[in-house]
TrEMBL record:
<keyword id="KW-0902">Two-component regulatory system</keyword>
<feature type="domain" description="Sigma-54 factor interaction">
    <location>
        <begin position="141"/>
        <end position="366"/>
    </location>
</feature>
<feature type="domain" description="Response regulatory">
    <location>
        <begin position="3"/>
        <end position="119"/>
    </location>
</feature>
<protein>
    <submittedName>
        <fullName>Sigma-54 dependent transcriptional regulator</fullName>
    </submittedName>
</protein>
<dbReference type="InterPro" id="IPR011006">
    <property type="entry name" value="CheY-like_superfamily"/>
</dbReference>
<dbReference type="InterPro" id="IPR002197">
    <property type="entry name" value="HTH_Fis"/>
</dbReference>
<dbReference type="InterPro" id="IPR009057">
    <property type="entry name" value="Homeodomain-like_sf"/>
</dbReference>
<dbReference type="Pfam" id="PF02954">
    <property type="entry name" value="HTH_8"/>
</dbReference>
<dbReference type="Pfam" id="PF25601">
    <property type="entry name" value="AAA_lid_14"/>
</dbReference>
<keyword id="KW-0547">Nucleotide-binding</keyword>
<keyword id="KW-0804">Transcription</keyword>
<dbReference type="InterPro" id="IPR058031">
    <property type="entry name" value="AAA_lid_NorR"/>
</dbReference>
<dbReference type="Pfam" id="PF00072">
    <property type="entry name" value="Response_reg"/>
</dbReference>
<dbReference type="InterPro" id="IPR003593">
    <property type="entry name" value="AAA+_ATPase"/>
</dbReference>
<keyword id="KW-0067">ATP-binding</keyword>
<keyword id="KW-0597">Phosphoprotein</keyword>
<dbReference type="InterPro" id="IPR001789">
    <property type="entry name" value="Sig_transdc_resp-reg_receiver"/>
</dbReference>
Amino acid sequence: MSDILIVDDERDIRELIGDILEDEGFTTRLAGNSNDAMAEINKEPPALLILDIWLKDSKMDGIDILKAVKRDNPDVPVVIISGHGNIEIAVAAIRQGAYDFIEKPFNIDQLLVVIRRAMETSRLRRENATLKRGETRSAEMLGDSAGYRALIAQLDKVTKSNGRVMLTGPAGSGKEVAARYIHAKSNRSSAPFVTVNCAGVEPEMMEAMLFGRESAKRGIEPGLLEQAHGGVIYFDEVADMPLGTQSKILRVLVDQQFNRVGGSDKVRVDLRVISSTGRELQEEIAEGRFREELFHRLNVVPIAVPSLSERREDIPMLADYFIEQCHQSQGLPKRTLSDEAVALMQTMTWPGNVRQLKNLVERVLILGEGTGPIEARELPQESAPSEEEDGKVILSGTLATMPLREAREAFEREYLLTQINRFGGNISRTANFVGMERSALHRKLKSLGVVTSQKAGARVARVEDEGEEQIEQAS
Ligand SMILES: Nc1ncnc2c1ncn2[C@@H]1O[C@H](COP(=O)(O)OP(=O)(O)OP(=O)(O)O)[C@@H](O)[C@H]1O
């Protein structure tokens, strides 16, 4: 597909451009007014449209044609030809979705560079759209909890604007999924969504990757910014962007244009920028690791993505969804979750958030026992509470699956056994510490089936009906 439609009311110009492009191996069609142009487009949308802004003897001017094309054939790149001194109109055209503009009088090399780049970007965009179709399932966003619904309400508010969004939240909470949601619901949804993994790229490679490269030997290699033209660029973990690159990105945000590495021509891009961070950017600024000016430019609309522990109600729905995904993509058994397994999952700590849940589901399905419901014993038992959870009670897996009365008894038994052994079996000190009368503690221990005994010089506390020593030796 290398068919280019050239629309210009000056016959000499359209024929000149046509001849140049034919010499370069493109097929061209020509139109001298808006009626002919629209007829050609409706007959067969071209691979590229070169469009003069001012069209004499026409019902529509170039901007009207541009709008019609962007409405009906948004994938067709449009290069505007503008008369000298009409730069504002050309910039307005870019806002309407034109790919780029060239000013009359133009030289042939300049024209060819712009056209090749437009064709290349359009090809990448089609490829990206194909990839995206395959990816849409994984970008699906699920939930029904209050925290999730509040997030969706905020995301919905920003989809129709062009405002820069900063998504904050812990690792694996779904920041990228949220960014893809904004893109999919915006009027840029048919244009690319390009992720820049700021943490995963060597600082010295970052600029070539973002801005592209230009050299006599290898020609033009468009970078990610160019590939995202018209769409969304997502800076994942923006705090990891090297300081030098931060300054350059700041310039791009101010000027809306940049040079490729090794190139002298300015490249213009129309982008919506979404960034994410799991770190506190104010701290990074205070430490001199993040540029404050860039922060203010990127942080126009801050949106917090809740951690999984702030939206525990969503866990069953998410787990079912991941089971279905594993079944579809890897043929793993489509198991259900037992009530105990759900209760355990809803009380566990999830430092890795939704990603951790997804990985856990996959692991259980791979290693699991048969095809029946997933049982609590197949899930990892909670390790010691982390420091972050300081002061918060972490339920052990078994406790979480019991009715309150039993859970309370189990807790009291465990708690008192621990205290008695901590105080070397001394009931008075234990009673004093736990805040009970000595006699009341005795009665409590009895009702819980805990006996204390002197053995080998140390007092040990154990649960009577299990007949098993809970703690081998008190200190
Ligand atoms: N609401 C959701 N519904 C369905 N899947 C989700 C949801 N949130 C996250 N996921 C899945 O969890 C995984 C992690 O999500 P994502 O990559 O968006 O997190 P992140 O916050 O961007 O992580 P990081 O900060 O580590 O890059 C992905 O596989 C994603 O598909």
